[in-house]
Design goal:
Elements: H1 5-28, E1 77-79, E2 83-88, E3 93-103, E4 110-112, E5 118-123, E6 135-139, E7 142-149, E8 152-160, E9 166-175, E10 181-193, E11 213-218, E12 221-226, H2 227-230, E13 237-253, E14 257-262, E15 266-274, E16 283-296, E17 301-312, H3 315-321, H4 335-352, H5 355-369, H6 371-397, H7 402-415, H8 430-443, H9 467-482, H10 490-507, H11 512-536
Antiparallel strand pairs: 1-2, 2-3, 3-4, 3-5, 5-10, 6-7, 7-8, 8-9, 9-17, 10-16, 11-12, 11-13, 13-14, 13-15, 14-17, 15-16
Length: 537
Amino acid sequence: MKLDGSSIAAVVFCFLAYVGYEFYLNKKYPERFKSSTVPPTQSQVPPTPTVKTAALASTLSAAPTPVYKQLSASELRIENDTNIYTFDQKKGALAAISLKDFENDERSGPINLLQFPLEIFPTSVINPQSPEGFEATRDGNSLTFIRQESPWLLSHTFKIDEKGYGATLSFHWKNIGRQAENLKSIILMHHTMAPGKKAGHSFLPGMPTNHPFLILAHSGDVERFDALSLCKDNEHKVVHSGTNFNVGVLGFDAHYFVSALLPQEQRMSYRILKDLGGENQPCSFRFFTENEQGLVQPSEDISISYKAWFGPKSTYTFGTYDTNLEKTLDLGFFAKITHPLLWALHFLNDLVKNWGLAVIVLTIFLKLLFYPLTRQAAVSMNKMKKLQPEMNKIREKFKDEPQKMQQEIMRFMGLHKVNPMKGCLPILPQIPVFFAFYRVLSTSIELRQAPFFGWIQDLSSADPYYITPLILGVAMFAQQRLTPTTGLDKTQERIMMLLPLFFTVMMLTLPAGMVLYMLTNTLISIAQQQWLNRRLQ
């Protein structure tokens, strides 16, 4: 498409206005994308969320002070087709979760989702300390940890799915005292981050980063909390809390991976606490879910089961396991466009067997799809170009009367049925596609460490030698040179010529997949410009 300078200025103005307005709204209304669902009031009576079961296994009927027999390393290790789970009996926790199909950032072995042991256990204490010392039993793919918290005998069981990234976590409270006791059943997930973890930032407001996030989905709403920002200060704080909610997901989002509990829509209270942290210090978070169980009789037990997920964020695996997990995907404001783009990328990758080629083919398809709009804009700008000499005469005639000049120009354009915005408006529908595509390429696990050709061995990371961003800068400069600048003075022309440099600097740190999309888009735009120029002469 061949546009004059005023049209390019209008497009740039539209783009910058959008970015500025988004930044303003995000600052003034940080919660503007939250659901309008009205949270339940505390006066509502929640349905009973637990199941009172028969007596626990004989292990749970042990004496109040059990003898802790240490399981062997092999017994504390459970492996399925995708994951290797290693447990810590002293803490009753997950010590490591290795994903066999995904390498770590250094490509030295399978990625481990945990930097410190992940504790998930039942308690009846409002602010418990992490217990140490558990009885443990192994049965196939299930591992149970047992401890006493007078007057309760507590146990939690990790049952690992035979296939995939899912698990079932069962929690039990048994009254081993001689009288009925009131029980507030509390489940705690304690996650600790290592100090000094670096993460990338987005260059636009509302765009994704690879920051770790705390994630909470409840009653149709999704909350995300930037863990790195919360860890900057060295103090305890309540990050978030609520009473009587349907909690669907509670966990930790590590950009491409997620470790989460799925309470299955049980009404409960919840709290998220941040423990001590600070610069270069480990930082930990505690997630609590709480339910009032009322009186529990002697020898009676209470049981609660959650599903869990320890693996990649993928719409394809989420849909077959639990739809609540889809809430962990941050697909942005244009999610309805993002889903079809991701599906198209999968389809094309199945055909060409290369994610980079899939990006190129999809970009070509999108440019062909929008070609009618591109042609419409080119026709409008070509007509404006032919009328430009007459408009310049009007400007010269009324140069000392700006208001009169504007009126005469508008009358002249109305007489000839031209509108300069027609060159801009056909381009506007492409802006949501740009942002949606950026979201796909920045957050899709499928592109993580996916090679293209030669030096580009990870489409989710920046080009290590900055070759493609520099080629993109040259291509954008060539496109700018081919674009007429009728109506612009010398200063404006110089400013317009700086735009390729501005975009090149931005692209230096963007994922190689996104730069590949922009480069393909620019080259096709140049070809379309040349084609339309010849057709419209």
